[in-house]
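Researcher: I'm preparing a figure for a lab meeting and need a structural model of a single chain. I don't have an experimental structure, so a prediction will have to do for now. The sequence is pasted below. Please return the structure as tokens so I can convert it later.
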Amino acid sequence: MILKRKETVIEAVMIKDRFLVRAALALTIGLAPLAASAETDDFVNGLVTKIDGSAGKITIKHGPIKKFDMEPMTMVFRAADPVMLKAIKPGDQVRFVPERINGQFTITKIEKAK
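Model: Understood. Here is the structure written out token by token.
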């Protein structure tokens, strides 16, 4: 492209800058599904063996918990919100999100497995 005026150089740079901004935006939007899939990877599968609603605790025989480098085992978790335990009963296959809150393993989300 041959430029005839000084303004044309400025316009060419502005067009290039707009292209780069749009490309960056497209990449960001395109990566959003990857972020969503990362959230689903936080879920762990397990089998509810016991619920102590008054203490807000649930015992789950779970699969590996990668973020804590934990092998499959049975353990007691605290429920972040004890109300969530009302939708679950012993024997249910579940998917849950464990977190470590104030040094305690705590379930922040739980749902029956489909």
